Automatic annotation (TrEMBL):
SUPFAM superfamilies according to UniProt: Glyoxalase/Bleomycin resistance protein/Dihydroxybiphenyl dioxygenase
PROSITE patterns named among the record's database cross-references: VOC
Record protein name field: VOC family protein
Organism expressing this protein natively: Larkinella insperata
InterPro entries: Glyas_Bleomycin-R_OHBP_Dase, Glyas_Fos-R_dOase_dom, VOC_core
């Protein structure tokens, strides 16, 4: 049996030649702190909610509904912030005990933000 300790990082693909656009989206629009340094494969690393988000250029590929989900403290505030920056918000099935929405980065990667309700 494997005993997992914690979620460490998530790597998602970005198209080749889009590193600066990715850096702008994740640092300026989402407000994530970039982890400096040379990283394997020239990846960009960001710190978010105690984990690392890694972005690495890849060729081709298709995108799906796969996504990371992050619990946040104020879903409505996040929605207003993203929409004010032109980011489209979408919804999916309802889940008891939590509110949530989805958005995509400029490269088609899907993210979920959620807030637990009383």
């Amino acid at each position: 049996m494997i005993h997992f300790k914690r979620f460490d990082h998530l790597l998602i693909p970005i198209p080749e030649g889009k590193q600066e656009e990715a850096r702008n989206f994740y640092s300026e629009i989402l407000g994530l702190k970039e982890v400096p340094g040379p990283h394997p494969g020239g990846a960009l690393w960001f710190s978010v909610a105690g984990i690392e988000l890694h972005l690495r250029e890849e060729t081709g590929g298709t995108y799906s509904k796969r996504h990371p989900a992050f619990e946040i403290t104020n879903l409505e505030e996040a929605k207003r912030e993203l929409e004010s920056r032109g980011i489209e918000i979408t919804y999916s099935s309802e889940i008891d005990g939590r509110q949530r929405f989805f958005f995509h980065d400029p490269f088609g990667n899907r993210f979920e933000l959620l807030q637990f309700t009383a």
